[in-house]
Amino acid sequence: MKGKRSWGRRLALSCALLVLVAAVPAFAAEVVQNGADLWHTTSGFTFTSFAENPIPADFFCQGSKPFKGTINMKGVPLATIPVGGLGETDTIVRRLDDATFNPQGETTTRIQLMALSLASVKPVDTGCGLYDVIASLAGVQPVTEMKIVRTSSYGGYYVAPLDLKVRLVFTPVSGKGDRREVANRVSLGPGSQSFWAYPTGIAKVAVKHTGTVKVDTNGDGVPDTLVPAPSNFLAGVDPHAVATATALCKDTSCHCAKWSKDPYTPNWYCDHLHCVEVYVDCDKPVDKVRYGPIPVDPSTPADPTPIGTVDSSHSNN
User: Are 281 and 316 in contact (CB under 8 A)?
Assistant: First the structure.
């Protein structure tokens, strides 16, 4: 009888251990490989404002007033070898470390802007004539932290504030006069719709490159740095859509104010906004008006005319 009780205790202990093992998420100790997240800037949303940090007087010409304007920006495909090697990609964020999920399915990695290529949507009136504006990265970039959470076998979400140093080049539309350059520090809070998926199945539509690609990282138009190979992490793809959708369509994710913990903070609190394409279920309802305009002073009533809108029907890839 004693032997049977001992055997019974061992069996109960074994069952308890099996239950504990089953309770540990399957993603514990899984590694998210370091790599690069490739983005295409959404036209009609992205802007930078100088209202809080004006360009000084006399910058554009003798007697010019401080420039406090807002410049609406669009993405320009990065120069690559081979040509077109990254498609419409204009922004690259580098994940610097391999990151291992803990038992709760969470991990962190360091991130840094690797490349940026933006241009003004239309010429900017500076009081000294019209100027075209281009934006690229200026020097060594700051490093911030990305928190990655896995919520299912298809992927999850992440929280990634961005910090970057930007070079803005102003070129006279008339062709007369000198180009002007401004260096600007831009800090952005976590983006809306910051989700990720494993690059399998329907998610592969968002894979931007294969093979070896060299990209221009300093804005001189000459590709100078190899882009990391695709990894097991695909930013900007809704994992729920991967699980259930028959097709993926494009939507928008925006990074706003650094201090905001809410990625859906209204635009009128932002002095900079960067919006990029993400992929969602084509049947997911999308509000027509996504982001309003930007009075810089939060006490100023919001202008009802939006800077960017998204049609109620998605655009298919």
Answer: no
Query: pLDDT tens across 185-229, in order?
Result: 888 888 888 999 999 988 888 888 878 999 999 999 999 999 999
| Spatial distance between the Cα atoms of 69 and 294, rounded to a whole number of angstroms | 11
**From CA 36, how far away is CA 39, in angstroms rounded?**
10
Give which of 162, 159, 158 is closest to 93, Cα–Cα: 162
CA–CA dist 316, 282 (Å, integer): 8
> Could you tell me which of 313, 114, 276 has the C-alpha nearest to residue 192?
276
End-to-end C-alpha distance for the chain, whole angstroms? 71
How many CB atoms are located within 10 Å of the residue 116 CB? Answer: 30
- What DSSP element (H or E) covers 278? strand 272-281
Provide the CA 26 distance to its chain's centre, in angstroms: 28
DSSP bridge pairs for 248? 281
For 8, the 3-state DSSP assignment is helix
CA distances from 188 to 48, 234, 239, 262, 279 (A): 11, 21, 24, 12, 21
